[in-house]
Amino acid sequence: MVELKTDTSIDEMYAAGQVVGRALTAVREAADVGVSLLELDEVAHQVLRDAGASSPFLGYRPSFAPTPFPAVICASVNNAIVHGIPNGYRLRDGDLVSMDFGAELGGWVGDSAISFIVGEPRAADVRLVETAERALAAGIAAAVVGNRIGDIAHAIGTVCRAAGYGIPDGFGGHGIGRRMHEDPGVPNEGRPGRGLPLRHGMVLAIEPMLIGGGTDGYHAAPDGWTLRTDDGSRAAHAEHTVAITAGGPRILTAR
């Protein structure tokens, strides 16, 4: 069931989203050659503490997961698409890093992700990250009252496919509110004019995921969480929490 949020609730979700934005900004600024993923997890954790917020990621265990998630960020490096578990890995020059983070504040959740390159970037990685951001922007632009979920999916997929990138099937965006994952699902590829109509008060986490090699295949790593590209190519992930309003899409996790 899709819960429509009131304007007051959306304002409260914005407060949670701003904690998310501050944490991702802090993580991006702290990320450098030699810094470990565990150190970046602690940076994000400190932002939560300072805000009096909690993590919807820490301890989360969906049906597919063998163990509860042990951190407050998902840190996915190079050929990891999403759900990477922070560990002692120290960032290297040229690493492509995707960071996904959520915060719960006042009973409401915000969720967002960024991808960036540490040190000297490769041109192919810059293009991949920029395309993920363009796909996200296209999805957000389609998130207007009167459109349908398929319009968001089509906008995202069109950008990704035109650039020659793969899209991992079965993973995409979702509704968000009191819980991190709510109805409806928001695919990253689809047909326009199809699916649930978008209404004022719907709040969605829109999150394109791109596979640089152009194929769609992926697999779960031995940890049961991290999803990696089958072809070994690099991946990028971008996400914002977005409210559908009569005045247009409102980005609640703007940085």
Automatic annotation (TrEMBL):
Keyword GTP-binding: no
Annotated Pfam families: Peptidase_M24
Source taxon at top rank: Bacteria
EC annotation from Swiss-Prot or TrEMBL: 3.4.11.18
Signal sequence segment: none
Binding site for a divalent metal cation 1: D100, D111, E239
Keyword line: Aminopeptidase, Hydrolase, Metal-binding, Protease
Amino acids binding a divalent metal cation 2: D111, H174, E207, E239
Annotated ranges, domain Peptidase M24: 12-246
Binding, substrate: H83, H181
Cofactor dependence: Co(2+); Zn(2+); Mn(2+); Fe(2+)
GO molecular function: initiator methionyl aminopeptidase activity
Catalyzed reactions per annotation: Release of N-terminal amino acids, preferentially methionine, from peptides and arylamides
Cofactor remark from the record: Binds 2 divalent metal cations per subunit. Has a high-affinity and a low affinity metal-binding site. The true nature of the physiological cofactor is under debate. The enzyme is active with cobalt, zinc, manganese or divalent iron ions. Most likely, methionine aminopeptidases function as mononuclear Fe(2+)-metalloproteases under physiological conditions, and the catalytically relevant metal-binding site has been assigned to the histidine-containing high-affinity site.
InterPro entries named among the record's database cross-references: Creatinase/aminopeptidase-like, Pept_M24, Pept_M24_MAP, Pept_M24A_MAP1
Top EC group: hydrolase
Alphabetical list of NCBIfam families matching this protein: met_pdase_I
Function: Removes the N-terminal methionine from nascent proteins. The N-terminal methionine is often cleaved when the second residue in the primary sequence is small and uncharged (Met-Ala-, Cys, Gly, Pro, Ser, Thr, or Val). Requires deformylation of the N(alpha)-formylated initiator methionine before it can be hydrolyzed.
Similarity-based family: Belongs to the peptidase M24A family. Methionine aminopeptidase type 1 subfamily.
Quaternary structure annotation from Swiss-Prot or TrEMBL: Monomer.
Record protein name field: Methionine aminopeptidase
Lineage of the organism: Bacteria, Bacillati, Actinomycetota, Actinomycetes, Kitasatosporales
